[in-house]
Amino acid sequence: MLIEMMTGKLHRATVTDANLNYVGSITIDENLMELADILPGQKVQIVNNNNGARLETYVIKGERNSGTICLNGAAARLVQPGDIIIIIAYALMDKEEAKDYKPKVVVLDNNNQIIG
User: Fold this and answer.
1) 27 annotated to a ligand binding site
2) In the Enzyme Commission scheme, what number(s) does this protein have (predicted)?
3) N or C: which end of the chain has fewer CB within 10 A?
4) Residue 95: is its pLDDT beyond 80?
5) Cα–chain-centroid distance for residue 55?
6) What is the DSSP string of 1-46?
7) Closest by alpha carbon to 13, among 41, 36, 43, 39?
8) Which residue numbers are catalytic?
9) Backbone phi, psi, residue 43, to 5°
């Protein structure tokens, strides 16, 4: 049996931009992606702490060390620049693998700099 487990999380990321006219997705600073073990094209869940919105989308690599967190396309209607969000990546794994798996959790400040 496979179960869905969190593999990585960017906790309290600050939205830097919302681009309604882009095809879709979330653009994330490449360095932050690597630290949270999130891959380009990977499906992620976005939880908006400001308004309670939840959505799923896929990831696009943003400029390294830019701090970019940009919701694109229809998702841009669910956030405002400055909103605090949680970005969660998941993967399917069998129960035995899941028992010992340690997800990568990156806690950010208001400038998307790592604090934990």
Assistant:
1) no
2) 4.1.1.11
3) N
4) yes
5) 11
6) -EEEEEEEEEEEEEP-EEETTSSSEEEEEHHHHHHTT--TT-EEEE
7) 36
8) 25, 58
9) -75, 135
